[in-house]
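Bumping with the actual sequence this time:
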Amino acid sequence: MSPTDSPPIDLDNLSNADLKGLVVKQWEQISELTRVVASLRGEIARLKGGPPRPNIKPSGMEQATEPKPPPDAGTKPRRGPTRAKLTINEERIIDVVPPPGARFKGYASYVVQDLVIRPHVIAFRRQRWRAADGKMVTAPLPPGIAGHFGPHLRRFVLAAYHQGQATMLRLLTLLRAIGIAISKREVVRLLNVGQERFRDEARSVLRAGLARSPFITVDDTGARHRATNGYCLHIGNAQFTAFITTAAKSRRNFLEVLRAGHTDYVVNDEALAYMRERSLAGHVIARLIADKKRRFADSAAWTAHLEKLGITALKVSPDPVTIATEGALWGSIKAHGFLPNGVIVSDDAGQFNVGEHALCWVHAERLVHKLDTFTPEHRAAQASVRAAIWRLYGELKAYRGAPSAERKAALTAEFDRIFTSHTGFVTLDRLLARLHANKAELLKVLDRPEIPLHTNGSENDIRCQVTRRKVSAGTRSDVGRDCRDAFLALVKTCAKLGITFWDYLGDRLAIDGSPVIPPLPELVLARARPP
């Protein structure tokens, strides 16, 4: 029966068999319509670029477990006078025609903040002299002048693009509207060409953070480069931020990033311990130990060494090449003094599980929060478990401020009680058992109370990369990718160190009157507490 068919004239006179047949046909029609609707929804989702994100609200566990402020702390402090923070650049006297018989009583001050944006073209007339030997001597350009666009313009372009998240085309339109004669290619050059010192400083910030920080939090997000999907990795903590975009999402890739720009592979005690922990065959480890050469300059040298030892020809599980390479990368990380006793806090993605590893409680609780429930009993069990996790989370936060052996034992017992309980909700019980298997990583804070209980810092930092991906799609050159990562990392690091990015650019671009900003790696080293 099609949707256009008219219903029978008299349903009351139909027999039971005819009514049943009519109902069956209607069921068939409803099933077909349901199938068509589902296929259309799938097609709409495909055209939009994938399935929509699930509508899961944040659990609110972190905010709910914060200590309550005292009753008298409800009022916000006064902002204070603004004028004390300002430097007066110009004073103007405004006259008024007084009425007859008036007496002069001074001035009423009224401060206005304004911004002057206009083209400023300078023609440098450089003296030229011919020396006695016939060579021409030309006066050099002032410091900060590199190319035909001055440091003020370069600072504005870098700040607007990276901190203001403007697109290149909108930035080009704005510059032209102001009166700057500039092309699209020249804007791209201002953003990418000659920025080696900024990229080097961003890499040095990462090295300083890895060398001295007691912990790092990590996360990654999608990134487009050369019209291909890749991944942007975040590494950071309260003192620094680093972004590195690569094509892969693997443990080997993560270990390569942790070398912070170094390219060597090292077979040392830490590398061998990593290989044994990952169950690399004993005879493979023996081959590596027997060879006297232990450091290799790059990937090509390391691969040639594995081929010489016959390791690449082995077809066993786990793959000896993968495990040996990861071990040599871990050996390089330790050889350069990175993560000497630092903890890596992650969201339980497998590639981050190296070294001393801790898990994010917010991600763990989220698994319980987003669990599908179908009966009142299921919902009650879920609510009970979530309430218990919230209480334990609040107690762990309090423990970080005042650790003790007694509280550690009590919290460990409470963890076991929650995650070994049986609620009768099978899916929830299986999830609790899986989380209990991660006990050592979820309770790492009991041994290292200085580490955070979550990766919220990484998720907050990486949002700028997500915004850049949305407004600019992706990068086309390796230099453009590296500059984007470096400048966004520098923006975040400056904010964490209490430095305005505008002042930082002014100092690095040698703009007169800019405050002196010390090298950011030195500030990170000074503020990071040694592990």
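The tokens above came from a reply further down the thread. Residues 361-453 form one domain.
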